[in-house]
Specification:
With about 70 residues, the chain is mainly alpha-helical. The chain has helices at about 5-15, 20-70. The protein is rod-shaped.
Length: about 70
């Protein structure tokens, strides 16, 4: 949400009980938390991919070195 829509929501909700404003901020926090979790899990996945690719690369290099030594 951009600032203008957020501000308009707060302006509308300020005419009503403050509980509703808290609801909206709570929802906003939940969304941010979810985005953070998604980012974290995506980072974990990419790190695993990177690690596995590294392992296979080093294995190939070792095999090449062994063949060149013979």
């Amino acid at each position: 949400m951009d600032k203008e829509t957020k501000q308009s929501i707060y302006n509308i909700l300020n005419e009503f009980p403050s509980r509703k404003v808290n609801k909206i901020t709570g929802i906003d926090k939940k969304i941010k938390k979810q985005e953070y979790k998604n980012l974290k899990s995506e980072n974990k996945r990419s790190n695993k991919r990177y690690r596995h690719s590294n392992i296979s690369d080093t294995k190939q290099e070792l095999q090449k070195n062994n063949e060149s030594d013979k």
